[in-house]
Amino acid sequence: MLRIALFILLLFGCATLAAAQSNDIAVTGGGMFAFTNPLDLGAAWALEGTFAHRIAAPPVVSLYLEVPVAGSFSSSIPTLSGISVARSYTSLFVTPGLRVKLAPAFPLSPYFSVGVGYAHFNHQLFNGTSSTNDSVAFDIGGGLDLKIAPFIGLRGEIRDFNSGGLDIPTLAFGRQNSLFVTAGVVLRF
After folding, report:
1. Rounded to whole angstroms, how far apart are CA atoms 149 and 144?
2. pTM greater than the 0.90 cutoff
3. Which letter, b or e, does each residue of 21-30 get, where b requires 16 or more Cβ atoms within 10 Å of its Cβ?
4. What are the pLDDT digits (tens) for 104-151?
């Protein structure tokens, strides 16, 4: 009986702390993999920053509005024929959307997110010039938050940004899948 009372008290305490924290900011880093050609992933270093605000918090699920801003550093652009049209490119994605977080009061919380927004690509061409392209982008992703202190946590995330804007033939009707695999720190307030 004492164990049950302590467990209920722990859940109540976690729920009270979680209710006080309706915002989070995450900064993560890792890699971006561009899936235009199955023989070359066009890998690059990546950074992502996300701001989220909780809009609903039923007991076992929370709903957030979020704004992820993700960018990659220099990456090659492989085409289907294996000949690169540009020396390298960088990308930037801003895709506001929704995040659904499961078990938000627990120390380990999985989440899923979707969004739609903007993609920007900056190409460095072989002749030394550069060009830019903009496109509509969609994202879908998921991750895991680990609370290590009342207001600080760790995050691991995988997010796929689907966009146009590279002006090269791809397997997905001219659209590019840029998979961001990142890990970092979350601050809740």
Report:
1. 15
2. no
3. eeebebebeb
4. 989 999 999 999 999 998 877 777 777 788 989 999 999 999 999 989
